[in-house]
Amino acid sequence: MLLKIYPGNVNRALDDEHKPLLKGYGLGRDGKIYLEYLTDSISGKRQVVAALMPGGTPTIYHDCKSFEGPSPKPCWHLGAMSLAMPGHVPMPVNVERYQVTPVPIIKDLTEGILDRPGDFELLELVEDDSMTGEAEELVVPELPKEDSWIARYNLPVRVLKKVLAFREKQKETLTDEQKARIPEAKYIPSGNEFISAVSAMVYGPEGKRWEAPLLIGPKGSGKSTMAESLAAVFMLPVNKIFGGIDLNAEALLGARTLVPSEGIDLVTEAKLRSACKAAGMDSEPLVQKVRGAQMKIGFEPGILLQAVEKGEMIVVDEINMVIPEVTSLLHGLLDWQKTLSVPGYGTVTAPSSFRLVGCMNFGYSGTKNINEAFQDRFRSIQVPHLSSIQLANLVSQETGCKDANSRKLADLFEKLAQGVANGDFSERVLSIRALFRVAREEMDGCGMLKTVATSVLTEGLNDKFEVAQVSDIIEACIRD
């Protein structure tokens, strides 16, 4: 049974009535996390909840009256259990409706959650901290303080370990300039799409068989934000290129050009000094001037070549608009050799840190289906729109606007998305960035929410009929 834990479930677990019922958390020898609690404050009866987190959607073993009936609901016990789990609420979980038989616990986790040691009766804390090899594979490693934010993505343990090892290498090698080009992780997953992308980027031992994710989704689904969040997870500086007829091999790889040459050859310098001496001139100023004017043929690397040589991330946006000349360049980077052939320069083997992410969206003028053989080199991943609740949370976090306004804007976006799906108007009206603009302008006193939303969302439209339709939806969703 799939349920979702909400902030209200967590708040209830920590209120004055329920927090005293929480007796302790422990890490079991089997890799599960256990919670021992009192069923109520009078009977003194104790029970145990367990959670297993191999990655993806966690599984919680628990039975409760809240699960009965045609519409099961999450209970405060699930909220309490989430306190010991990586990630953040709202959090989807699989619920197995039965009471587990607890195994001995090898670590008391209560101190880090409730600021006190555990008070166990059903759970037995043993000194032997050994685990089975299989269980050790399931235990989430402790994250360094600066990496603690990664926990919210609930990565599978094996994937997380490879990510952390990758980040440690990056911390040792990145320059300050490169660190400044690492974006923040702002993507909010709707399902397992983020886990799938991270997993593809660390396929094989030490991530050596990685594959490039191809993020496929409608406009406004957050593909670019997801790509930047992947870069943040891997501590990779981002280089972006945008598909189109203007993007060619020379722009990506670079070209031969004239560059200043240091010094002049000895024969030329000797002849120059001899001529100056014969003419009774001081040769030094002339020699220095000639040295500065010397040019030679060099190579100016393009954005793709630079990213490959430095072991950074390249994000190809609207990859299905890329011309064949460019896709052929990417083939070598997408196979097991990870090489880039540059005419007149040579073949470059990408460092182990290099990564590539593609993004594509059907609907723009000029877009087309991607070549099947080319797409097969990617790990294709569907990126859906955020749910209304998730989008409202994102708008609030990004802009600091009132919750009531963020909910109205999220509902508005949902209605616009439905209109686009029905073919009522174009995808250009779907923009999460536009929602941020509306929220910020309203906060700065530029007008009422409805007025600002109408201005931001319609003034870029050329079709009067489309403007009228969008205005009607704004009128229905936002009532100041």
Please, could you describe this protein's structure?
The chain has 480 residues and is an alpha/beta fold. It has 3 domains: 2-138, no CATH class; 151-384, 3-Layer(aba) Sandwich (Rossmann fold), CATH 3.40.50; 388-477. 38% of the residues lie in helices and 18% in strands. It has 19 helices and 16 strands. A 7-stranded mixed sheet has the order 1-6-5-4-3-2-7. It has a 5-stranded parallel sheet with strand order 9-12-15-8-16. Strand 13 (339-342) and strand 14 (346-349) form a beta hairpin. The longest helix is centred in the C-terminal third of the chain and has 19 residues, at 403-421. It is globular, with a radius of gyration of 29 Å.
Q: Short summary of the structure?
A:
The protein is of the alpha/beta class. 38% of the residues lie in helices and 18% in strands. The protein contains 19 helices and 16 strands.
Beta strand count: 16
What is the residue-mean pLDDT, rounded to a whole number? 86
Rg, Cα atoms, Å: 29 Å
Please work out how many helical segments DSSP would assign: 19
Taking the alpha carbons of the first and last residues, their distance comes to 40 Å
CATH class annotation of the largest domain = Alpha Beta
Structural class, by secondary structure, is alpha/beta
Which CATH architecture of the largest domain is right?
3-Layer(aba) Sandwich
General shape: globular
Instruction: Give the strand content.
Output: 15-25%
Q: CATH topology of the largest domain, anyone? A: Rossmann fold
Low-confidence parts lasting 5 or more residues at pLDDT below 50?
none
How much helical structure, as a percent, in the residues? 25-40%
Tell me the number of structural domains. 3
Lateral strand order in the biggest sheet: 1-6-5-4-3-2-7
